[in-house]
Every structure is written in C-alpha cells, then in structure tokens.
Amino acid sequence: GVFTHPFFSHMIHGIHLGVTRTGHYLAYMDASHVSETQLRSILEEAVVGVVTFGQLSDIVSRLLARKRVPTVCIEPYLPSFCGYAVYVDNRMAVQQAISHLYDLGHRRIGLLSVTQGPPSGSLLERVEVFKKEMDALGDVAWEVHLAPNDGGLTDVEAGYRAAYQLFTTRSRDLPTAIITTNDLCAIGVLKAAQKAGIRVPED
Hints:
Layout: H1 6-21, H2 36-44, E1 50-53, H3 58-67, E2 71-74, E3 84-86, H4 90-103, E4 108-115, H5 121-137, E5 141-148, H6 155-169, E6 177-180, H7 183-195
Helix pairs in contact: 2-3, 4-5, 6-7
C-alpha cells in the first residue's frame, strides 16, 4: 500500500512537510473506502486544499470541481480532468530500461508487474509502451506477466510468486532480463530467481 511502500511514504512525508510550513496539517483519507456523501461532508469542513494520488474516479473529480477547492492530482489518469496534475514520465522510463537491456545484449526481455484487476493508469501506460517499443525493435522476443494481487499479498510476495512460477514451469526460452514496474516487485523477482537457482546477473 501507499503507506508501506518506501517511495510513496517519502512522497507523503514531503507533502506533509510542505503543508506544515504553511501552518496547516495534513489529513489522510482513502477515497475508495468512503461514500460520496461522506466525501462531500469532509470537503465541506475546513479543507483549504486537496492532494490526490492515483487514478481519480468520476465521482471524486466532479466533487472536487464543484467545491472549487485548490487541488493538485498526482497521476489522476482521467481524460476529463483539467486541473493541476503531476505525472511520472512512464514512456521515458520504459524506453530507458529497454535501451539499457538491449545494449547489454538481451534479446529475450519480460515485463512483470503486480496488479489489482485489469491494468489501468500508469501500469497500463507502461505495458502499452513496453509492447510498442519491443515490436519496434523487431529482433527481440518479449512477454508480459501481470501478477494478480487482491491486496492479500505485498508487492514483494506477489512478485515472488509470479516470478517463481515462471522460472520453475518453463525449462527453456526464459527471459534473460525482466523489467518490473516497482522496486518491491523487483525484490520479489530477485528472491524467486535465487530460490530457483538462477544467478543474477550471471544467468
């Protein structure tokens, strides 16, 4: 989750520091676990600004627009959203990862990620860029593995499970390199490789 992931915990800490310097305090809320009525009630309280993270629902977007409260959204991935938004350059990140591995001589490259339900938002963008870049290279075999996680596993555990299944159910033509979409999933892949007797980076 956001609070346990090292990247996002640092991000939230940075937001907290910025807010406290203005004399305000930061309140955290998971909008997916409250009703529209509850969310409207919260916004009617002494809220002077909102920072959202992750793909926005239409309901949340409409409420924020109606309240006209200053809002910054981190990766909202909502076509109808027209406010202030901050995005990671997923295209550049995937392109750089592929270019690095290709230059090292890898010609069988996999993408492995953890997902809850069908890919959307930043994950969908990364998968689409990966497929497009792989097809453009022409001489590279590629595959995408999306590890389902309903929230019962950490990203490390879900990444480990998916990678270990991949490593142990195929005896040939395994990817020689794997790109993951977050560091915790990568740790799971490394643990799975070690368990399966695959040396990284030697093999």
